[in-house]
Design goal:
disordered N terminus; four-stranded antiparallel sheet; two-stranded antiparallel ribbon; alpha+beta; 310 residues
Length: 310
């Protein structure tokens, strides 16, 4: 028997939902926190903040030494580039002057002048002594002296005379301040502290083992005179610069440049004192055959009468 459309037996109850009921907010309560605390979000607790600060401190402790080492390497690379620029300019000077090594006495406007600045530039045109001198004025005098040196016309810019790691520039002017970072090795046509010197590059028997320029830190306002080593009675005289960790840069007569890392504590201490502007750090102890640093320097400080260290 079929369904009767209007029969009470076949009629289903249909509930009509109001539009207002569809959009009505839920009245279901939020889930309760089993611990009894409110489920609403809160800020960081003191312990959480301390943990974050501790993590940041640990990361800083790991990163800062790496950044410091990277900076030392960067200044060392720039310093080596300065050495190479010096060597290139010296080679061009030799090409124009019958193979002559840059002299420590040079004619300026017809007058023969001593190249007091590292043994290869004039030196500041006014004494950088006392207090009250501005850095701008001191740098002006240094620039004037460099411009009167034998390498001035060979493209060696003023910035090439300064290692970016040279901390002496932070010292007060007149009390350890200095701009120039390099000195010529005295046996390379210098003043002859220990006797005869090489006048021409062709006279140098082992140019790849012979110092031409040395990174130095004189505390007297600039690097005064060529760099010297006592060879008659072996011993230290002039100090080095160690602005790249315990490393100094050297330029060699064959045109290459390299760094040397020091091992002797007395050598490192003397160099650090000079960098801080402390005087009287020359002639320090330890210059003998038992010191590996001294033996290494002796081997590179070649001169016409050079002999192996005994």
């Amino acid at each position: 028997m079929g369904w009767l459309p209007h029969s009470g037996l076949a009629t289903a109850a249909i509930s009509v939902v109001s539009p207002h009921q569809v959009n009505a907010p839920s009245t279901i309560p939020p889930l309760a926190d089993p611990s009894g605390r409110s489920a609403q979000p809160t800020g960081f607790t003191l312990i959480e903040l301390l943990v974050v600060i501790a993590i940041i401190a640990i990361l800083a402790g790991l990163l800062l030494p790496a950044l410091s080492r990277a900076k030392l390497k960067a200044t060392g690379a720039a310093c080596l580039n300065n050495q190479k620029q010096h060597l290139m300019a010296s080679a061009m000077y030799a090409d124009d002057n019958q193979d002559a090594i840059i002299p420590s006495a040079y004619s300026v406007n017809g007058v023969l002048l001593g190249m007091a600045g590292g043994g290869y530039w004039l030196g500041p045109t006014q004494p950088i002594v006392g207090i009250g001198i501005s850095e701008a004025l001191a740098l002006k005098w240094v620039t004037e002296g460099i411009q009167q040196g034998p390498l001035a016309k060979y493209g060696l810019v003023i910035g090439s005379y300064h290692c970016p790691g040279d901390t002496r520039r932070r010292n007060p002017v007149g009390r350890g301040w200095a701009y120039d970072s390099y000195s010529k090795s005295d046996p390379m046509n210098g003043g002859g502290w220990n006797g005869p010197v090489f006048k021409k590059f062709t006279e140098v028997p082992q140019p790849a083992n012979t110092f031409m320029f040395i990174e130095e830190a004189d505390s007297r306002g600039y690097n005064i005179g060529p760099w010297v080593l006592e060879t008659k009675t072996p011993g230290w005289i002039d100090v080095f610069a160690i602005f790249h960790g315990n490393l100094s840069t050297f330029g060699y007569a064959d045109g290459h440049a390299a760094g040397h890392k020091w091992r002797d504590p007395l050598t490192i201490e003397a160099a650090r004192k000079a960098g801080k502007g402390i005087d009287n750090v020359i002639f320090w102890k330890g210059g003998d055959k038992n010191n590996p640093d001294f033996v290494w320097v002796w081997d590179g400080y070649r001169h016409p009468n050079w002999q192996p260290l005994q």
